[in-house]
Write a structure and sequence with these properties.
Length: about 375
């Protein structure tokens, strides 16, 4: 059936089933599949099983693959299985918790990524219900650990699925992990920035100390970590690591013109994320370029810091700072890593008596 004839039927079917789509999303986000919390590991497994049943309902063949264990909260915890599936093998198919407030649904994964994943199921169901064959063959890999660095997934993909030939007939890969530019127009993202992630460990003592007794008589790990992390980026978001922008592709006039025509409202964007103010003077073109074509550095947290409410007077004996750099075309991970370590190395000389970067630099 030609696309010109079938697509109007598909769209009509979708419009007629909006309420059922909402109800299915409510059901999915009500499962608190929090991958970083050991208390919710059973919920993660439940989410995988739920998705397996939904794939079977649309006619897909499915399989659960075990991917081992992880250390979580000091214990060995079994990782949730990865759901692998396939739908169609036609040689003719070619690539062509929860609360509601009016139009918003809040819950675990409502937009990232349960909602988008369910969109695939709804599209498949729409084709089935209008009596039209899917124009492409599909394969699925759904995992529950994406928000925790996708632990175990690389090994499954590279050491098992790839040698088994799972990807031999795959021409293109789609992921369901991104957002619209605004709140009114759907969009397809055709590229993502990469990521280089770093852990910076500073140790000043083999134990935590009391500031009332030891303050002023020891080098403090927290103070020096904050100093170091503060040298990575300036107040306007510019990365301060030497030569980090050197290999970034130059901005050509033809590319620059594209940003003028993109439908993006900075003020609507600001409100949608409840931000107080946007950088780059909230200029549309600059915001888009810094979202897509320039690298960015983010500070994510500090292990070993005491975060409970109330006044704390401890001096942590060891802290680990976490930061990442989103890399862009023409930047290679190995090149970025060298720049980061060269930069940190130069700073480390200020604290050579006791400071070292995990796994890379020896204790001085």
């Amino acid at each position: 059936m030609a696309a010109e004839r079938v697509l109007p039927q598909i769209f009509q079917y979708v419009d007629q089933n909006v309420e059922s789509y909402k109800n299915l999303l409510k059901e999915a986000v009500a499962i608190p599949s929090v991958s970083s919390d050991a208390k919710h590991r059973d919920d993660c497994v439940r989410m995988v099983e739920w998705m397996k049943e939904k794939l079977k309902e649309v006619g897909a063949s499915t399989e659960l693959r075990d991917i081992g264990f992880q250390t979580l909260e000091g214990k060995q915890v079994k990782l949730p299985p990865v759901l692998v599936g396939a739908l169609g093998n036609s040689s003719h198919a070619t690539t062509r918790f929860m609360s509601i407030s009016k139009w918003q649904l809040f819950g675990r994964g409502s937009t990232d990524d349960k909602g988008p994943v369910l969109g695939w199921l709804h599209a498949i169901n729409a084709y089935k219900n209008v009596g039209s064959e899917l124009p492409v063959n599909l394969k699925f890999v759904f995992e529950c650990m994406e928000e925790s660095s996708s632990q175990g997934l690389d090994e499954l993909l590279l050491e098992k699925l790839k040698p088994e030939g799972f990807f031999d007939t795959v021409d293109y890969v789609c992921i369901s992990d991104n957002y619209w530019l605004g709140t009114t127009k759907p969009c397809i993202t055709y590229g993502l920035r990469g990521i280089s992630y770093y852990f910076l460990e500073i140790e000043c003592a083999k134990m935590d100390l009391h500031s009332g007794v030891f303050g002023g008589t020891v080098y403090e790990a927290m103070s020096d970590l904050i100093y170091l992390m503060n040298t990575l980026i300036d107040k306007d978001g510019k990365i301060l690591i030497t030569d980090i922008y050197k290999s970034v592709a130059p901005l050509l006039e033809t590319e620059k013109e594209l940003y003028h025509t993109i439908d993006f409202d900075p003020e609507a964007y600001r409100k949608s994320i409840d931000a107080y103010k946007l950088p780059h003077n909230a200029v549309k073109e600059q915001l888009l370029m810094h979202r897509w074509r320039y690298p960015s550095l983010s500070l994510h947290g500090i292990e070993g810091a005491h975060f409970q409410t109330g006044a704390k007077t401890v001096i942590p004996g060891k802290v680990v700072g976490k930061f990442s750099i989103r890399i862009v075309p023409n930047q290679e991970p190995e090149e970025v890593e060298k720049l980061v370590f060269d930069y940190i190395n130069a700073k480390i000389k200020l604290f050579a008596a006791y400071l070292y970067e995990v796994g890379k630099l020896p204790k001085q």
